[in-house]
Amino acid sequence: MAEYWDLYDENRALMGKTHQRGIGLPEGTYHVVVSVWTVNQDNKILLTLRSATKPLFPNRWENTSGAVQQGENSKDAAMRELVEETGIKSLDSEMSFLGTAVKMDSFVDIFLVRKDLDPSSITLQEGETTDYKWVSYQELKQIDEQGKLAFPLFPQLQAVFE
User: Fold this and answer.
1) Bridge partner list, 38
2) 124 and 85 in contact (C-beta within 8 Å)?
3) Tens digit of each residue's pLDDT (9 = 90 or more) over 53-84
4) Strand partners, 149
5) Helices (H), ranges, 38-153
6) How far is residue 2's CA from residue 21's CA, in Å, rounded to a whole number?
7) In this structure, how many other beta carbons lie within 10 angstroms of the beta carbon of residue 59?
8) Minimal CA–CA distance to 21: which of 67, 80, 81?
9) Which of 27, 37, 68, 108 gives a 20 to 30 Å CA spacing to 14?
10) Which domains does the chain possess?
11) 129 in helix, strand or coil?
């Protein structure tokens, strides 16, 4: 089933146009992506391992992320992606907005979820991820320094922990 995104201009004004995922975005347009950092009661951060079949950054560690679908707001997309990729259901009150980064043709809305979780309760999304682990902030920093993270993710969380 095709996935569609709302299109925005460089000022994040909704353009009233949609775009099908998988087709290059028209020049000068943007879509919204969410990035979700999950932190448990032990102050450990959830990372998932991208599938080897992913075209971008296969077998690299990442946080939960995904595109905001047509008509969806970013907080709802963050909660949806978290359930799809990890099985974690977040309450609105557990999710904090950290800010927005602009990456090429995307506005990336960054969220933090703090939640008491059984560390073994993660359900991975088939075809998307193949493993998960809970890491300390220092371990995340090392993984980033070793080049094992997908995307430049670490700066998103650095300000929260430091």
Assistant:
1) 113
2) yes
3) 988 889 999 999 999 999 999 999 999 999 99
4) 61
5) 74-86, 137-145
6) 7
7) 14
8) 67
9) 37
10) 30-161 (3.90.79.10)
11) strand
The CA distance from 59 to 22, in Å, is 21
List the structure tokens of 135: 């890491």
Dihedral over Cα of 121, 124, 130, 133: its sign: negative
Q: Is the pLDDT of residue 162 over 80?
A: no
Measured CA to CA, the distance from residue 154 to residue 143 in angstroms comes to 9
- Is 109 within 8 Å of 32 (Cβ atoms)? yes
Report the candidate in 101, 75, 86 with the shortest Cα–Cα distance to residue 156.
101
Mean pLDDT of the chain: 91
Nearest-angstrom CA–CA distance, 79 and 113: 9
Largest CA distance in the chain: 44
Q: Report how far residue 113's alpha carbon sits from residue 115's, in angstroms, rounded to the nearest whole number.
A: 6
